[in-house]
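Hello,

I think I submitted the iron/sulfur cluster job twice by accident. Can you confirm which output corresponds to this input? Input:
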Amino acid sequence: MQVGPPFIVSYSITTKCNLKCKHCYSDSVEAAPDELSTEEALRLMDDLSKWGIRLLVIDGGEPLCRQDLLDVVKYASSKGIRTTIGSNGTLIDGAMARRMLDAGVRAVAISVDAADAKTHDSFRGMSSAFEQTIRGMEACRATGLPFQAKHGHQEGDPVATARHAASGGGLGRQCRRVLRPGGDRKGQTRV
Ligand code: SF4
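Support: Only one job matched these inputs. Its output is below.
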């Protein structure tokens, strides 16, 4: 039986991240030494295009830690590949949201773990993570960049909080998933 190409491809463009989540499945901190270079990432877009891939999810790590992220997205767009980004949202301000939109980013999935800053920040390993994530959602809304809140922690309703904080109709969808045990960062508590 001949198997056709996948409909969707997920590309972890970097393992670098600005947060230190307890539940990080990719053990992300610094960029892995064997990450694709810009040139290699562009060639990958060529290959995906040849294979007929039309939907690409770029995540990480935190994709926005890669300086060439939007070059890759722009190139993918020129090949007819629709790209969405999985992000923690903390590095998105108004200017970045505009640049993402202009590069061809179709939507952003922003992770939020709890309805309150204290709980979210304790998961994320940074004291102002919640505030910065909500600010990122607000920047997306103000710019017209579609986004969704995704969350796995089951206490409270973080999406409702995100919806309230980023009020104005920008929050189109929500996604809830259960965290799998393990994959935690070395030396930190399993969830
Ligand atoms: S935001 Fe958290 S879970 Fe996501 S890559 Fe960074 S450290 Fe890992």
